[in-house]
DNA sequence: AGTACAGCCTGCCTGC
DNA sequence: TGCAGGCAGGCTGTAC
C-alpha cells in the first residue's frame, strides 16, 4: 500500500521521464464498474480537459502524485491500496488491471493499474481548490520544516484517540499509513494504543524524531513492497524497505530489539503491530 | 467538534 | 481439491 515513501520514490523515478511531455490522448479500458474518476466528471469531460496539455512538473503531497499542466487544471492521482503507475512504450501489451492510460508524446504511456479500485484520478483547478475534501485539508508534510515536535505535541495533546490513529489521520500529519505509523511508534518505543493526551513531552519528541527517521530511511530504500507484492517503483521494481521492517507484518515473530513476540491489535479500524515489551 | 465506523473492492489465505 | 469466509486497508460519508 503506497504511503509517502512509495509515492515519493515513484515521483522521483517518473519526473525525469515525463516532464515536458504532452498528453496526446487518454483512454480507459472498458470496465462497467470503473470508479477511477469518481469526482463528478465523465470520461469524455476528463479527456476534453486534459488532452493536448503539457506536463510541466511532477510533485507529491501526502500520498498524492500531482502533475502540473500548462492549463487551468492540475492532474492528481492517488494509488489507494493497490495502485501502480507503469511507464511503458506505446502499444506494448497491456498489463492486467489497467484502469487508465495517458498516451504521451515520444511514444510513451503512463498506465494506472489498480486491481482493487481504491485508487483515484481527478483534476483540480490550478488557482482555486474547488472541492471541500481536497489537498488543502491535509496536515503538514512530516519531512518539512513546518512539521515540528511542538506542532505534533499540540496535535496529540488535544486528542483522545489512540496515538496510532492520530498518526494515520491525514489531517493531522500527511502521508503516514499503517506501515510507517507502526514502524515509527516502534522506533519511538511508544505503544500504539496510548491516548494522544497521555503522551509526555519526551515521548512526543521521540515520535517526531522516529517519524522522520523512518520515512527518510524508507525513501532511501525505495519504499516497502509488502507481502501482497503489489507496490512497484517508477521503474517497475520492488522496494527494499520490507527487509528492514521491525514490526509491520511481523506478527508472532521475535522483536529484533528484545526478542519478545510481536503482537497485533485493532486500532482505528486497522491492524496495529507492536512489541509489547519495547513499546510502553 | 471530535470520534467511530460502514462501505467501496478483489486477491489471497485459512479452514473445513 | 474446492469452496466459503475472513482479511487486508486507502479514503469518504454518515452517525453518534
Average pLDDT level = 92
Low-confidence stretches: none
Series of H and E elements: HEHEEEEEEEHHHHEE
Write out the strand line-up for the largest beta sheet, numbering strands in chain order: 5-7-6-1-2-3-4-8
Classify the beta-strand content into a percent band.
15-25%
Written account of the structure:
This protein is an alpha+beta fold and 280 residues long. It contains 6 helices and 10 strands. It has helices at 4-18, 43-50, 149-157, 163-168, 178-188, 201-220, and strands at 22-27, 53-61, 64-69, 73-78, 84-89, 98-104, 108-113, 120-125, 263-267, 270-274. The protein is globular, with a radius of gyration of 20 Å. The model has no long low-confidence stretch (mean pLDDT 92). The structure holds a DNA duplex (16 and 16 nucleotides).
Brief summary of the model shown:
With 280 residues, the protein is α+β, with helices and mostly antiparallel strands. The protein has 6 helices and 10 strands.
Topology summary:
Layout: H1 4-18, E1 22-27, H2 43-50, E2 53-61, E3 64-69, E4 73-78, E5 84-89, E6 98-104, E7 108-113, E8 120-125, H3 149-157, H4 163-168, H5 178-188, H6 201-220, E9 263-267, E10 270-274
Antiparallel strand pairs: 1-2, 1-6, 2-3, 3-4, 4-8, 5-7, 6-7, 9-10
Helix pairs in contact: 1-6, 3-6, 5-6
The protein binds a DNA duplex (16 and 16 nucleotides) through loops.
Amino acid at each position: 500500500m503506497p504511503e509517502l515513501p512509495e509515492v515519493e520514490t515513484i515521483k522521483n523515478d517518473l519526473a525525469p521521464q515525463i516532464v515536458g511531455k504532452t498528453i496526446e490522448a487518454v483512454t480507459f479500458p472498458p470496465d462497467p464498474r470503473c470508479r477511477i474518476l469518481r469526482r463528478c466528471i465523465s470520461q469524455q469531460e476528463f479527456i476534453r480537459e486534459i488532452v493536448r496539455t503539457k506536463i510541466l512538473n511532477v510533485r507529491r503531497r501526502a500520498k498524492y502524485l500531482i502533475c502540473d499542466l500548462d492549463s487551468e487544471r492540475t492532474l492528481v492521482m492517488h494509488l489507494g491500496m493497490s495502485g501502480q503507475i507503469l511507464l511503458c512504450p506505446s502499444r506494448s501489451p497491456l498489463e492486467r488491471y489497467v484502469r487508465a492510460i495517458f498516451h504521451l508524446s515520444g511514444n510513451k504511456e503512463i498506465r494506472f493499474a489498480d486491481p482493487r479500485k481504491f485508487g483515484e484520478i481527478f483534476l483540480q483547478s490550478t488557482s482555486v481548490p474547488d472541492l471541500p475534501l481536497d489537498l488543502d485539508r491535509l496536515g503538514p508534510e512530516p519531512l518539512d520544516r513546518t512539521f515540528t515536535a511542538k506542532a505534533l505535541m499540540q496535535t496529540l495533546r488535544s486528542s483522545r484517540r489512540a496515538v496510532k490513529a492520530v498518526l494515520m489521520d491525514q489531517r493531522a500529519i500527511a502521508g503516514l499509513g499503517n506501515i510507517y505509523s507502526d514502524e515509527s511508534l516502534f522506533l519511538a518505543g511508544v505503544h500504539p494504543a496510548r491516548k494522544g493526551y497521555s503522551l509526555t513531552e519526551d515521548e512526543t519528541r521521540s515520535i517526531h524524531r522516529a517519524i522522520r527517521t523512518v520515512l527518510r530511511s524508507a525513501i532511501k530504500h525505495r519504499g516497502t513492497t509488502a507481502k501482497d507484492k503489489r507496490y512497484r517503483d517508477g521503474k517497475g521494481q520492488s522496494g527494499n524497505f520490507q527487509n528492514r521492517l521491525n514490526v509491520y507484518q511481523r506478527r508472532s515473530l521475535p522483536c529484533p530489539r528484545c526478542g519478545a513476540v510481536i503482537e497485533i491489535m485493532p486500532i482505528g479500524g486497522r491492524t496495529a503491530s507492536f512489541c509489547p515489551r519495547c513499546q510502553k
